[in-house]
């Protein structure tokens, strides 16, 4: 098996910390068949390219890439560039937000294979086809704390949940992610109607003004 070392210009809570993850120049005893320098932020590109040159003393097979380089790959390998437990099940977004470049790479949501995890990093998971969204939530519901050392049991959507994409069936899916001790609770219909009004901009703008 080829020995792949991944190098990261900076750490964050999602950065892998296994035995083949590095955060600087090579050490005296580092050996690798291949090195990937993974870059998330464009501000780190100069540091990353400097690191790539330094790692070429270990192997000439050094590759620099990642989000900062507008990587358009639809491949996700669990644990390689983010810690185990973080997962990506789709890429892309149908919105055209001026501050985001995701839609320029993937103007529609591309469903990908679903790998186990508790923190979803998708660009806009709620905009994916219904069967994919339901499969993602089914995966999330079966996660157990015993399978993820250090996990506190809370499901996270670090990629974000866009209110504009939220549909009625997704409200129930989100409610289904409560811890088992809270699963029997179901909000009354009047509360769910109120909730839908305030999480869907299209409904808000269509609502009649309330008289003073």
What's the overall average pLDDT, rounded? 87
Q: Assess the beta-strand content as a share of residues.
A: 5-15%
For the termini, the CA-CA separation is 72 Å
- Principal-axes geometry comes out as globular
Evaluate the radius of gyration. 21 Å
What is the domain total for the residues?
Answer: 2
Order of helices and strands: EEEHEEEHEEHHHH
Q: What is the count of DSSP helices, taking H or I runs of 4+ residues? A: 6
Low-confidence parts: 207-212
Oligomerization state: single chain
Largest sheet features? 4 strands, parallel
Secondary structural class: alpha/beta
Q: Residue share in helices?
A: 10-25%
Number of strand elements: 8
Side by side, the strands of the main sheet go: 2-1-3-4
What attributes characterize this protein structure?
2 domains, disordered C terminus, 8 strands, two-stranded parallel sheet, 25% helix, 212 residues
In short:
The protein is of the alpha/beta class. The protein folds into two domains: 4-69, no CATH class; 86-202, no CATH class.
